[in-house]
Write a structure and sequence with these properties.
The complex is a heterodimer of chains A (111) and B (116).
Chain A: E1 4-6, E2 9-13, E3 18-24, E4 29-37, E5 43-50, E6 55-58, E7 61-66, E8 71-76, E9 85-93, E10 99-101, E11 105-110
Parallel strand pairs in A: 2-11
Antiparallel strand pairs in A: 1-3, 3-8, 4-5, 4-9, 6-7, 7-8, 9-10, 9-11
Chain B: E1 4-7, E2 10-13, E3 19-25, E4 32-38, E5 44-51, E6 57-58, E7 67-73, E8 76-81, E9 90-97, E10 105-107, E11 111-115
Parallel strand pairs in B: 2-11
Antiparallel strand pairs in B: 1-3, 3-8, 4-5, 4-9, 5-6, 7-8, 9-10, 9-11
The chains are: A mainly beta (111), B mainly beta (116).
Chain lengths: 111, 116
Amino acid sequence: GEDVEQSLFLSVREGDSSVINCTYTDSSSTYLYWYKQEPGAGLQLLTYIFSNMDMKQDQRLTVLLNKKDKHLSLRIADTQTGDSAIYFCAESRGNTGKLIFGQGTTLQVKP
Amino acid sequence: GAVVSQHPSRVICKSGTSVKIECRSLDFQATTMFWYRQFPKQSLMLMATSNEGSKATYEQGVEKDKFLINHASLTLSTLTVTSAHPEDSSFYICSARDALAKNIQYFGAGTRLSVL
C-alpha cells in the first residue's frame, strides 16, 4: 500500500472548520508537512511539524500529530472559498530531504 | 517565505525536440534541489535529487539519459527532457532545499510540458 495515505475529497461550507487527515507508515519520519496546491500551480508550504511535537498552531491552521498511531491532521478554522485547493501531506525521512507525498485531498468549500 | 522561480511555466514542443526547464532559488542558497513529475489528479512522483556540484541521483525507473539534470550553482538547477515524446507530456515541479534550514523545501510553480 501507499506509504502516506489521505482521503481524496472533503466538502465543507464556508465558515465551518475543515479537518484533513493523513496516515503514514514510517516511524522514523523526522518532519511532516502540509502543502497546498491550487489548479495549475506549484505547491505552497502551509506548515510543518517536527516528529517530537504533538501540536502546532499558526493562525487558522492547527496541526495535530499522533505519533503512536502515525496520524497527522490539518484543521482549517473558518474555512473560506479561497481555501479550496488540493492539500498534500508529506513526510521527510532522514537527512536526504526526500519527501514522500500522500495522494492529496481535494477540499471544496461551498458558499 | 522563500521564492523558487521555475521557467518556463508552459511549453509546447514537437516530438523529438529537447526542452530545458530552469529552477532558481531567488533569495536563498539551495545545495539540494528535487525534480518531481505530476500526472493529472495524482500525487507528486520524485524523479531525481540534484546536488550542487555533483551528479544527480535518480529514482528507480527514471532514465537519466532521458532527463538530464545539471546543478551548476547554489541557486540554479536545470532539467532537460531530451528527445521528448508525447508520453513525456506532464507537469514538472522542482523544489529547493534551504541550505540553512534543511528541513524546509520550497516549490516552484511548475512547468506544463505538452509534446505534440
